[in-house]
Specification:
Chain lengths: ~120, ~110
């Protein structure tokens, strides 16, 4: 069974750093890209970027370029989303998903809620 | 890069059909046959319902269908059921490895 399991909810202060994770199982992790999406409270989905776990090649949405970092460790089938300095506006639910060749996200993680508040 | 345009809400009675539109440009929806649709129930992760404009993943009922004309893609749900009440999002490839979502549509089953 294909599964993407994300790390738990986080509460952080502005300016702090954070890395959340997404562990894949039940399939060959390097055969599919991993994508990250943001959903702010009461709002829609936004595509942040994606990574090829084979070589860690990443692409970021222009809206998120420079604000987050996506990485992966294929030895442990895990992808990451990282911030170096959080802002209150980063408060959101973050989802990882497996991307198929023509870009549909066919399996999703359960989501990680990130709350940034002083 | 602006989100694809979806109606904020649609509604229908059980057994009826509803169609949700998703309008983009020739650089995204109109330029590629890589449109997907997602269903999201409150507090849950999204679920893939349609991909490559018209294809259904295994397990998705054939009551769900997709189409595209020009820069507008559509999701049609026939034989509405109470459990279809959810938010629906379209997503399109926009070139240069970029994806773009629609703003989302809330479906209410009356």
């Amino acid at each position: 069974e294909v599964q993407l399991v994300q790390s738990g909810a986080e509460v952080k202060k502005p300016g702090e750093s954070l890395r959340i994770s997404c562990k894949g199982s039940g399939y060959s992790f390097t055969n599919y890209w991993i994508s990250w999406m943001r959903q702010m409270p009461g709002k829609g989905l936004e595509w942040m970027g994606r990574i090829d776990p084979t070589d860690s090649y990443t692409y970021y949405s222009p809206s998120f370029q420079g604000h987050v970092s996506i990485s992966a460790d294929k030895s442990i089938n895990t992808a990451y989303l990282q911030w170096s300095s959080l802002k209150a506006s980063d408060t959101a639910m973050y989802y990882c998903a497996r991307l198929r060749a023509t870009f549909p996200a066919d399996y999703w993680g359960q989501g990680t809620l990130v709350t940034v508040s002083s | 890069q602006s989100a694809l345009t979806q109606p904020r809400s649609v509604s229908g009675s059980p057994g009826q059909s509803v169609t949700i539109s998703c309008t983009g440009t020739s650089s995204d929806v109109g330029g590629y046959n890589f449109v997907s649709w997602y269903q999201q129930h409150p507090g849950k992760a999204p679920e893939l319902m349609i991909y490559d404009v018209t294809k259904r993943p295994s397990g998705v009922p054939d009551r769900f269908s997709g189409s595209k004309s020009g820069n507008t893609a559509s999701l049609t749900i026939s034989g509405l059921q109470a459990d279809d009440e959810a938010d629906y999002y379209c997503c399109s490839y926009a070139g240069s490895y970029n994806l773009i979502f629609g703003g989302g549509t809330k479906l209410t089953v009356l």
